[in-house]
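Consider the following input, taken from an annotated entry for Cytochrome c oxidase subunit 3 (Erpobdella japonica).
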Amino acid sequence: MTRQPFHLVEPSPWPLTASAGALALTMGITSWFHNMGTECRMFVGVFMIIISMFLWWRDVIRESTYAGHHTSYVVKGLRIGMILFITSEICFFFGFFWAFFHSSLSPTVEVGCTWPPIGIKPLNPFSVPLLNTIVLLSSGVTVTWAHHALKAANRNEVIYALMMTVMLGLYFTFLQANEYFWAPFTLADGIYGSTFFVSTGFHGAHVIIGSLFLMVCLYRVYKWHFSSDHHFGFEAAAWYWHFVDVVWICLYLCIYWWGS
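Applying the prediction step yields:
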């Protein structure tokens, strides 16, 4: 009797704790929006989600690196899962772009029949936003360099390239936070402020998540977890980072440049 190539997952408490954390976070945010003074529930939800993520992914790394459960069939399933996840993220951002173009292509009387709305001073697209574009595109180049170096089994180059990618991602986050601090409009400034801060803010959150993803990959490279032909964890991080790059290009061209 031949052994089947698929990994049967062991019983795990982390889906339950992650679900409980998501419920607590949703209830906490809802209460916070209504000024009910229950912010502690929101922080408990965030804490539970972070702990569940850390422990769940720790178990996945152990299954892959030490237990050897990630056969070629399992990796194929993980690839399909990552593709579906990125597709769902595309649909997520599509909603933001839909809201932006719905408001900007045919501005209503309430916003002055013009875009940007009357009273809104948009950001200069050739200032910090252009620098952020250069920084993020450069990080896409360095993560591709790291991927090719990993396939060539050049560990030192992988470490250098990943360190550069992480530093560029953190620099992007710093520039965006500084841009938010000095922005001449806020989230409460009508539809323009809402679409701008929600779309760019969620993208910034994805940059932070991607930076953490790459930091974990950098640690795993340092610990010799990847080989030249078995490194899907890094490939998933690289795919996610390229997705973040493409979304930023669309945000820059549509919201920063055309929308101004």
